[in-house]
Design a protein that fits this description.
- This protein is of the alpha/beta class and about 450 residues long.
- It has helices at about 15, 55-60, 70-80, 90-105, 120-135, 155-160, 195-215, 240-250, 305-310, 325-340, 345-365, 400-410, 435-460; strands at about 35-40, 40-45, 50, 110-115, 145-150, 180, 220-225, 255-260, 280-285, 295-300, 370-375, 375-385, 390, 415, 425-430.
- The chain is globular and about 65 Å long.
- The N and C termini lie close together (about 10 Å).
- Bound molecules: pyridoxal-5'-phosphate.
Length: about 450
Amino acid sequence: MQHLHLAASRPSVTERHPVKKSNLFYQSRQRRPEVDRAEGIYIYGKNGTRYIDGSSGAMVSNIGHSNQNVLKAMKAQMDSATFAYRLHFENSAAEDLASTIADRMPDGLNKIFFVSGGSEAVESCVKFARQWAVAAGQSSRWKIISRFPSYHGSTLGALALTGYGPLKDAFMPLFKDMPKIPAPTCYQDQDNLSDHERGLKYAEMLRDEIMSQGPDTVLAFAMEPVGGASTGALVAPDSYYKRVREICDEFGVLLIMDEVMSGVGRTGTFMASEHWDIRPDLVAVSKGFAAGYAPLGAMIADEKMVETVLDAGGFAHGHTYAGNPLACSAGLAVLNEIDRLDLMGNTRAMGDVLMSGLRDLMSRYEFIGDVRGKGLLTAFEMVSDRDTMKPLPKDLNAYDRFVEICYERNLITYSRRTRGGIDGDHFLICPPMIVTETQVSDILNILDDSLAVFARENGLEA
Ligand SMILES: Cc1ncc(COP(=O)(O)O)c(C=O)c1O
């Protein structure tokens, strides 16, 4: 495969989307067109262009934009009360949402602690696990093993679990980093093992790490059941999940499932861990939970653990907006819409159509090395050699350039560097769960066109 360097004369993103001077800033100087309105799977820019939201933002807008029933429920809540502080009032939106979630979770996982986002949800799991250990007379336990690569959030506690260099390295002196084991990236392995054996091999790495850390110091293992931004929808072999649960049980280590991206229907089941019949001890959810209608997240906790912590004096943690009635009314209406429209069924069906379309693209573009995912949490990864799974040269910046090519064709995708943020390029294709077969086909056609452009620009074999 040959590689040419990027044409230096391409206009910068800022030149292509000129904006007036702004007092806003985010991660970089990149600017985008101003949003006008959004409906279904589409977002309209003030530039008159209609974009397909092919990644549901950052895997958030799961039920699509401007759902009228959700807006109506929020409006009704706004007309009664938008805020009632939890130390002063109960509110029925939070109460009803908590019981609706509890009804869908495995037995005993029925206590809900509301927060406003994914990092807060993970941070809550970390702190709750530790407080439980102290309350349960196991205060020697404090280490939370997680995986590399992984993403668990941007606050310092969540960052200690995260395995993604560019978002973490500068902050390392500010927190105590947690032990990591390799994420089960079986598709990169050059061995003669079966999938089943590979799953067990990666699970045993958890056992080895617990042994080497000292079992009585290990508090929990945190993982994304289906990977998100850092691994690009990584799914382990089936054998992995059950063995991980067994290993945690063997050592009394808690299993924290970070379902911030994979939860609330995105993979075709309410929680992704249901695919493997795994019962975690703590679960973090956010993103598709209120699906972009309000900032909302939650820790879902085992009832007995909660009782232990409350009996010992209470959970020493919380955020001002916890259980906010407006956010909870949105969350409840989103869950109702998922049921009413059978969006999990649609996710399974459209996930199959999307996956088979991505596999077809892989059969035609040699530089697609892997296609993976579950339901509508899907991704493909570019490589320079399928046999060795060697990434594309880092300086092609494929993860950035390909997203731009799609954006220019009015398709929004989401990308990251696959191998811990250093190199590797994957692209998450995660349209809202309301997507139709025709719309999946529109997405695939734009991807096809964009892949052809990317191949031409870089002298890659199609
Ligand atoms: C698996 C996972 N956990 C945690 C987070 C952090 O969520 P937030 O960005 O809402 O803080 C994310 C965000 O991408 C995520 O994908």
